[in-house]
Design goal:
Layout: E1 2-6, E2 9-13, H1 21-28, E3 47-50, E4 53-56, H2 62-65, E5 69-71, H3 84-91, H4 101-114, H5 120-126, H6 136-148
Parallel strand pairs: 1-5
Antiparallel strand pairs: 1-2, 3-4, 3-5
Bound molecules: FE2/S2 (inorganic) cluster (2 copies).
Length: about 150
């Protein structure tokens, strides 16, 4: 049993502490916006924030998330208002199938917190998420738009 703070609420999860956070979020808490892609920290589909930093939850044990603020895609908007990254995603029609996009948005939100005006080089370094639909150009445009918002 572990007590996690997810999107500002406390949840008890009944898992071994070594269980990947991804599975606790999806299967115990029912937050299925965080996706399973590769399971080996390569694709970024499972990205969430731990104390404001982007982490790949498939490779993060539940034990590492105890006592930290976990934010998932379901908790990124505040008070019914979309995060500026979500707004830019809608305006630039970034998603295709959408499967990678919650992880992509969480990674970008963390990047903009660290670097409010990222260069293309900053984006290439920080956003290593894989999109099988090839939305990378739209992602880049929407990041620059969100940075101006
Ligand atoms: S599912 Fe976690 S990085 Fe791919
Ligand atoms: S939008 Fe389909 S995998 Fe990225």
């Amino acid at each position: 049993m572990a007590r996690l703070t997810i999107n500002g609420r406390t949840s008890e999860v009944n898992v071994d502490p070594s269980t990947p956070l991804l599975w606790a979020l999806r299967e115990q808490v029912g937050l299925t916006g965080t996706k399973y892609g590769c399971g080996v920290q390569a694709c970024g589909a499972c990205t969430v924030h731990l104390d404001g930093k982007a982490v790949r939850s498939c490779g993060t044990p539940v034990s590492a998330a105890v006592g930290k603020q976990i934010i998932t895609i379901e908790g990124l908007a505040t008070g019914g208002v979309l995060h500026k990254v979500q707004k830019a995603w809608v305006e630039h029609e970034v998603p295709q199938c959408g499967y990678c996009q919650s992880g992509m948005i969480m990674a970008v939100a963390a990047l903009l917190k660290d670097k409010p005006k990222p260069t293309d080089g900053d984006i290439d370094t920080a956003i290593t998420n894989i999109c099988r639909c090839g939305t990378f150009q739209q992602v880049r445009e929407a990041i620059h738009a969100a940075a101006k918002a």
